What we know:
mainly beta
Amino acid sequence: MKNLLKLAGALLLVTALSTNSKAQVKFSGGLDLGYVLNSGYGLSIGASVGGEYPIGDNMGATFIAGYDKVLVSGASVSLIPFQAGFKYYLTDNKSGLYGHGQLGLTMYSVSVMGYSASTTNFSYSIGGGYLLNEHIDLGARFQIVSASGGSLSWLAFRAAYNF
């Protein structure tokens, strides 16, 4: 698993460095709203920061880090994802509709009645979105955190402002 993440990171870095040297990373900040699909959980809210490095007319290498709080009665549950991936625009000018896939690590923490635990697991997501203009990005994704005892999955929506 660790070797897979190292390989993905190395490929992302090589691809980013071998493309147009005049390209610049675009940063974004966004608000996330999600719904955890596992039984006993519910809505999640959070915030995230991300970036995109152009690697062609209609592709970008991406990264994101965030914090999501799962709203569940009687417990405190939080998710902190760190992921990298690729975005593919259906047009060649990096606007409009796009598809997006990412993989990385997510820290999962839970606290119930004085007991608390946390773990870091492999995570991945697939989704898409629509870039309304140069600054407003609306996206949706299906995200999974894999663990030895099962997985946690949720649907999430992100409204972001690109700088």
